[in-house]
Amino acid sequence: MGTKRNQRKRNRRLQIIDAAIKVIAQHGYHSAKMTNIAAEAGVADGTIYNYFESKEQVLICIFEEKMTELIAQATLKINAHQSPVDKVRAFVRNHFEHLQRNPELGKVFQVELRQSQQFFHGYRPKKLFEYLDLLGSAIREGQRAGIFRSHLDSMILQWSIFGTLDELSINWVMSEQQWPPDLDTVPEQVLEIFLLGIESPLENE
Amino acid sequence: MGTKRNQRKRNRRLQIIDAAIKVIAQHGYHSAKMTNIAAEAGVADGTIYNYFESKEQVLICIFEEKMTELIAQATLKINAHQSPVDKVRAFVRNHFEHLQRNPELGKVFQVELRQSQQFFHGYRPKKLFEYLDLLGSAIREGQRAGIFRSHLDSMILQWSIFGTLDELSINWVMSEQQWPPDLDTVPEQVLEIFLLGIESPLENE
């Protein structure tokens, strides 16, 4: 009985989170109202406060909940491969697949979340670090195996790749999905840039 | 006489902008008050409104003014070189030199500016595009010369490098300059990553 009730509470919570993503993506974080989120979720205005004490908390919970999903998904994709190069490929491809499948969440992550004071001042986005560690681990594994340049700082490398993914994602979201025009080829270009570098092979001979 | 008066107005304006950078870096954009900025600039509370109609406008003007300076500086550094590779190197090195010399401005650019609604909704940061075009031009020049891989999309490349610089800068600012620990070696690692790629040369043979 208790478990069933907990499950119902958890479903209701996820329902509110998904509604909040829609409302915040459409109206922007500052203009979005708790009452709009309640309406979109199909719950009474008062109900929403049984789950979240403020709009700021809704935003943080969107981040926590959806990053947990993204981490699980990326882990699955990465673990399907043995080679560190393929693991890096899987991480980068999955990042853009996830964005393409969840454009409203993309808007919340890439634009709206960054306007939260709490998120920038004092909050430690542990889930982001956990996500990036999937990439960092593949990089370090490749370095130990002599596949990746071992004198490169794996943290700098991890944040460089993430910065690239993040900036291209922001562009896609802010341009209303106009640029980059094709999220299927973007990861391939990014992977070539990072794996082989930008210098022409002729030049390196 | 008119010119002298204009010059004085311009100096006063820059003085307020520099004071605003200090105050916003210290208190955060939302907590910073126009009256604090006036005090820091050593002008009367009313005077500041002769120059800027709102705190939001001060923030936008910090961006415009300081990006203009950064563009001028980067152009000078880039133009000292002939080879596209050296131009890319100059751009990346200058970016971190500028951050290291202007940590308070870094805080405003990397953290506070992004919390402005106006900046994200509707405002086109033309100066950012102008700055990035310096990098994009060097890349395209290198592609035409066969030095850089020509099938890579120069816009994706430009935003990838910028994403990397930006993400590492955010880390430095948010960690109170703790990580990355040494902004002199960061550009060299970043340049190696992009120019040569991360795969070990042995692997490519």
Give the key terms.
205 residues; 11 helices; 0% strand; homodimer; Arc Repressor Mutant, subunit A; 2 domains; Tetracycline Repressor, domain 2; mainly alpha
Task: Give an account of the 3D structure.
2 copies of one chain form a homodimer. In chain A, α1 packs across α2 and α6 crosses α9. The N and C termini of chain A lie far apart (70 Å). Chain A has 2 domains: 53 residues, Arc Repressor Mutant, subunit A, CATH 1.10.10; 143 residues, Tetracycline Repressor, domain 2, CATH 1.10.357. Chain A is built from 11 helices and no strands. Chain A is an all-alpha fold. The longest helix of chain A is centred in the N-terminal third of the chain and has 26 residues. The mean pLDDT of chain A is 93. Chains A and B meet through α9, α10 and α11 of A and α9, α10 and α11 of B.
